[in-house]
Specification:
Distance between the termini: 79 Å
Strand order of the largest sheet: 14-15-16-13-12-17-18
Structural class: alpha/beta
CATH topology of the largest domain: Aldehyde Dehydrogenase, Chain A, domain 1
Shape: globular
CATH class of the largest domain: Alpha Beta
Helix content: 25-40%
Radius of gyration: 24 Å
CATH superfamily of the largest domain: Aldehyde Dehydrogenase, Chain A, domain 1
Number of helices: 15
CATH architecture of the largest domain: 3-Layer(aba) Sandwich
Number of domains: 2
Bound molecules: 2-aminohexanedioic acid
Length: about 500
């Protein structure tokens, strides 16, 4: 029997009202269960939203430096439990232990960064056009915020949302991904231990359609922040539009790396391998399109194949493993379907293209790092997000063609160029249509104190983390104080 876990609503740990559960398992060994979790429905979501509503008044009126004290405690607890959290994460979603540690570190960084905001939350003052009148603008909390987060960064991505939302005085209802409830539970426990008042944060486990959708549609939810697929994000946005609430969306990517002939090729290959096959390709920032300047095409490919072949696939808890399993069986078959499609479309499979089944790998959801060449921009493997270890390679005659290929996508999250030509590098920063551009580094590894998000179908114009974090989770209020003692009309009206 799997250990049974509960929802966190109004400071209490409670079962789903219908008593149903779902099981979370280890993708490296599906016989290993991490627990049974409430399969919540609209009733449970409603209870959580009511709890967030009740907690809102006091929390929003608690001075921000006091709110920050809880965040500092969570930060210290995260540091103390980093190794345990990383191990649970690897067991639950497969990323290798070193990367799981990085995931927790992102949350530690975000916790300290946003705790510091408790003594800033800066607004601004500005002169009035009239005498004896003062004006300033302050940040106000938005209210009750619904958070829907993915399994691929089960602590980092929620931390980008939870910490700024809380420091700004909002209360939250969090629906973590159904693939990583245990990791979410362990993270949520730290907020309880840190003394966050009941109802300020609530956690409802379950599936998107059963628990996520009622959260989006609940009349008392004032904002939704969602990270996940473009398909689901579009649905969230459409439903929330009827309520006229703010929606923050972080969605897919089809992130390109351009390698120009003058680049340091060893450096480029290191970056490509890390960006395409790190986290088994399951990052929204992962590189899935490689655009190679013709003169160095053969040379680069040879080295890329060699280094990719040398990657060690296995259980992420084992030392030395570089590529863990993909998250579940459905993802595994989706990835393989794309590989079959790529072949049918006429791309040439250079490497991988099948499950890894040697020895112990047979029981888990392992897929070999895969490289396609002779890919053309019309092919679906060039256009659609696969979210697995599959890289499509195309050639470019010159810089202009490389940029054109890189921008030939409906997505726009991350992008990269390898070149030693500073002029080309600076041009690429302007030319690449993406929320993030790296020079001489792969597409992954964004730092928390810079804005994160993308253009085109990757998002709906917002950014989180960095200076943008507070913009995402606060509302501006403008204040005018007229101390003239008479009616003064703005805009020069006599
Ligand atoms: C994601 O894949 O959803 O930049 C987030 C990166 C990480 C975050 C990825 N810091 O790759």
């Amino acid at each position: 029997m799997a250990e049974r876990f509960k929802n966190w609503i109004g400071g209490e740990w409670v079962d789903a009202k219908n008593g149903e559960t779902f099981i979370s398992t280890n993708p490296a060994d599906p016989a290993d269960a991490l627990g049974a979790f409430p399969r919540s429905t609209a009733e449970d979501v409603a209870a959580a939203v009511e709890a967030a509503d009740r907690a809102f008044r006091d929390w929003s009126r608690t001075p921000a430096p006091k709110r920050a004290e809880v965040l500092y405690k969570v930060a210290r607890l995260l540091e103390a439990r980093k190794e345990d959290l990383a191990r649970v994460m690897t067991r639950e979603m497969g990323k290798v232990l070193n990367e799981a540690r990085g995931d927790v570190q992102e949350a530690i960084d975000m916790a300290y960064y946003m705790a510091g905001e408790g003594r800033r939350l800066l607004g601004y003052t500005t002169p009035s056009e009239l005498p004896l009148k003062a004006c300033w603008a302050i940040r106000r909390p938005i209210g009750r915020i619904g958070l829907i987060t993915p399994w691929n960064f089960p602590i980092a991505v929620p931390s980008w949302k939870i910490f700024p939302a809380l420091i700004a005085g909002n209360t939250v209802v969090w629906k973590p991904a159904e693939d990583t409830p245990r990791t979410a539970y362990e993270f949520a426990k730290l907020f309880e231990e840190a003394g966050l008042p009941p109802g300020v944060m609530n956690v409802v486990f379950g599936y998107g359609e059963e628990a996520g959708r009622p959260l989006v549609e609940h009349p008392k939810i004032d904002m939704i922040s969602f990270t996940g697929s473009t398909e689901v994000g579009r649905d969230v946005y459409t439903r929330a539009a009827r309520k006229l609430i703010r929606v923050h969306l972080e969605m897919g990517g089809k992130n390109p790396i351009i390698v120009m002939a003058d680049a340091d090729l060893d450096l480029a290959v290191d970056g490509i391998v890390w960006s395409a096959f790190g986290t088994t390709g399951q990052r929204c920032t992962a590189c899935s399109r490689l655009i190679v300047h013709e003169p160095i095409y053969d040379q680069l490919l040879e080295k890329l194949v060699e280094d990719t072949q040398a990657l060690k696939i296995g259980d992420g808890l084992e030392p030395g493993v570089q590529v863990g399993p993909v998250v579940n069986e459905a993802q595994l078959s989706k990835i393989h379907q794309y590989v079959e499609l790529g072949k049918a479309e006429g791309a040439k499979l250079l490497l991988g293209g099948e499950r890894a089944t040697e020895g112990k790998l047979a029981k888990g959801y392992f897929y070999k790092p895969t490289i396609f060449v002779d890919v053309t921009p019309e092919m679906r493997i060039f256009r659609e997000e696969i979210f697995g270890p599959v890289l499509s390679v195309v050639r470019a005659r010159d810089y202009d063609e490389a940029i054109k290929l890189a921008n030939d996508t409906t997505y726009g999250l991350s992008s990269a160029i390898y070149t030693r030509d500073v002029n080309l590098a600076m041009r690429a920063v302007e030319d690449l249509e993406a929320g993030i551009t790296y020079v001489n580094h792969g597409t992954i590894g964004a730092e928390i104190h810079l804005p994160f998000g993308g253009v085109k179908d990757t998002g709906n114009g917002g950014r989180e983390a960095g200076l943008a974090a507070l913009d995402a989770y606060t509302e501006w209020k403008s204040v005018y104080v007229d101390y003239s003692g008479r009616l003064q009309k703005a805009q020069g009206i006599e």
